[in-house]
Amino acid sequence: MNNLTAVADPGQCSVQPFNPYDVGAGLHAFDFEAAITGTVGIEGDGIEDGTFETTKAAADVLAPLPNLRAGATFLITQRWEVTADAGWLSLEIDDIDGSYIYLNIGTEYRFTDRFGIGASYQLSKIDVTSTNSDGLDAIDVEFSGPSIYLTYGF
């Protein structure tokens, strides 16, 4: 079955083939900075009050990360679509190994040929592991949530 989509152009309207699937690969500039910091305070009778702060581990990486992504878009009507995307990137430099994974599902409705509104939900996970002389440090971050947005097509 060949899906078609209408493309509006000022002064001209045409119908073009619509490909609902996409796959991509490339490089992503990922700037990741992390530090583990602690504060210690001392209080007591006859002891001078004081606090000090120390940093256990810190990493700052800006590097091109290889990434892969895939997605699908399904037209419910000519103005309403549902999309799903997934992506992955990973890097290992010296004693630091990290990865980023995301999943996104959303819907978008075009109320004119150019303007629309959409909503999506994304799940993301970042894992970074560092092995150094102090031992093994790991950062595992998961975040997810909805977004609502306006869109303009041209």
Describe this structure in words.
- The protein is mostly beta strands.
- It has a domain at 19-33 and 63-152: Beta Barrel (Porin).
- It has strands spanning 4-9, 12-17, 21-42, 50-75, 80-93, 96-110, 115-132, 135-152.
- Strand 1 and strand 2 (12-17) form a beta hairpin.
Helix and strand string, N-terminal first? EEEEEEEE
Count of DSSP E strands?
A: 8
The CATH topology assignment of the domain at 19-33 and 63-152 is: Porin
Derived from helix and strand composition plus strand pairing, the structural class reads mainly beta
**Strand order across the largest sheet:** 3-4-5-6-7-8
**Average residue pLDDT:** 75
Oligomer: single chain
| Alpha plus pi helix count | 0
The shape, in one word, is: elongated
Q: How much helix, percentage-wise, in residues?
A: under 10%
Estimate the strand proportion: over 45%
What CATH architecture label of the domain at 19-33 and 63-152 applies? Answer: Beta Barrel
Q: What distance separates the N and C termini?
A: 27 Å
Largest sheet: 6 strands, antiparallel
Low-confidence stretches: 1-16
**CATH class wording of the domain at 19-33 and 63-152:** Mainly Beta
- Which radius of gyration do the C-alpha atoms yield? 24 Å
